[in-house]
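Key result, reporting period 2: structure in, sequence out.
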């Protein structure tokens, strides 16, 4: 049985991105109302950082130690936020268009990546941009990195799927998903598996080492924007334009559950570190915390 809780004192605008801290103590959400929201999972008290970006906050990600929050905005800026004080430690400009996704590279949290509508993947440190990776011919909505920090995954609205090394070397390239790639995710338990999702409601799981398709899932109508593996690799969750979340069993390779409490597009998903909980953010302004049986 799956139960849910709508997190209190939420957003006044659409939620574009959510994440769960690696110690399970916090949930963060980025809103189009220019703010981030941070919930304590013990008390469910919320803190809000308003006017964080000059435009909507489209991407949030906790650092591996949970002390920092990486954000990306529609104002074309990447920021690093102190989780404790909710103050911006650094702002990094230079992107040419909306930033849609951010991710830390590796476990030390010293480097991080962003991508968006300028068709580039940018590699940063707190000192600024150190590299840009080109190759995509259309805009990108989603980016993720492998657990070992050796690979960067992104997809474009042209249907291109790329895996690069942090140095920019192409490790995998494929054209897939007829209506573009709208979401990507690396497995949390392995650097060999990743998933992509498209505008046609299909989720594909890939083996990075062989380049082969591990399997396909179909359960959505319209594009899919949220995509995440559980830490143990048992589950893959997807959320999309149909306001539905699908929980896929990767052992039996079938649909386990459909979660239908959102009223609009589900843009982002994140599992708790123990895999027992899932958090979702939606265009309906809600952040929902799910407890999985």
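The corresponding designed sequence is given below.
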């Amino acid at each position: 049985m799956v139960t849910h809780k709508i997190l209190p004192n939420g957003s006044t605008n659409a939620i574009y991105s959510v994440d769960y801290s690696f110690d399970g103590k916090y949930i963060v959400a980025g809103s189009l109302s220019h703010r981030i929201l941070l919930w304590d999972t013990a008390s469910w008290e919320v803190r809000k950082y308003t006017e964080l970006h000059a435009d909507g906050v489209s991407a949030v990600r906790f650092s591996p130690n949970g002390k920092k929050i990486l954000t990306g905005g529609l104002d074309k800026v990447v920021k690093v936020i102190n989780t404790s004080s909710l103050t911006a430690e650094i702002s990094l400009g230079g992107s040419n268009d909306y930033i849609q996704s951010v991710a830390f590279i590796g476990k030390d949290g010293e480097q991080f990546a962003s991508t968006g509508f300028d068709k580039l993947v940018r590699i940063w440190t707190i000192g600024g941009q150190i590299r840009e990776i080109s190759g995509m011919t259309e805009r990108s909505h989603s980016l993720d990195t492998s657990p070992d920090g050796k690979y960067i995954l992104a997809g474009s609205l042209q249907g291109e799927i790329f895996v690069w090394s942090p140095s920019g070397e192409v490790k995998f390239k494929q054209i897939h998903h007829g209506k573009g790639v709208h979401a990507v995710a690396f497995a949390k338990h392995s650097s060999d598996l990743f998933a992509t999702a498209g505008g046609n409601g299909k989720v594909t799981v890939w083996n990075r080492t062989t380049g082969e398709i591990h399997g396909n899932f179909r359960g959505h109508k319209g594009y899919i924007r949220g995509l995440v593996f559980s830490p143990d690799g048992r589950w893959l969750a997807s959320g999309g334009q149909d306001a539905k979340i699908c929980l896929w069993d990767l052992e039996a390779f079938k649909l386990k559950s459909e979660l239908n409490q959102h009223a609009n597009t589900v843009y982002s998903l994140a599992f708790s570190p123990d895999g027992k909980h899932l958090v979702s953010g939606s265009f309906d302004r809600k952040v929902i915390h799910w407890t999985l049986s």
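The chain has one domain: 12-222. The mean pLDDT is 96. This case is discussed further under Risks and Mitigation.
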